[in-house]
Amino acid sequence: MLNAAFIFIAPGADPAVNRGVVETPSVRLTSIGVETYEQGVEVAKEMADAGCGAIELCGGFGIRGTYLVEQAVWGKARVGAVRFDLHPGLDNKSGDDLF
Question: Tell me: the pLDDT tens digits for 7-28?
């Protein structure tokens, strides 16, 4: 079974509260909300240490945010990203401009 995570960034998100799990016969996906890149890095490390092999980041993580997460879990998990040049959930800005 693939153990995967989706980390999204949103104002007011609390990774201790804003998380859930969806499990299918072949994938266990944990979705977690964070408010900052720093929280995203910490959550990614937590998930990688728990055996999560695939981490996908929402489009709110800009190029810099994706790089920070990738470096934090290097050798433990693969990191992918949904891409928006300007994210509609962040007032049409890049996370790199905000975080």
Answer: 999 999 999 999 999 999 999 9
Sign of CA dihedral 50, 99, 97, 17: positive
Structural domains in the chain, sorted by start:
2-98 (3.40.50)
Using CA atoms of 51, 11, 96, 94 in order, give the dihedral in degrees to the nearest 10.
Answer: 110
Please report which residue ranges of the chain form alpha helices under DSSP H.
Answer: 37-49, 63-72, 95-98
Task: Count CA atoms within 13 Å of residue 14 on its CB side.
Answer: 2
CB 37 within 8 A of CB 68: yes
pTM score = 0.86
Distance of CA 48 to the CA centre of its chain: 11
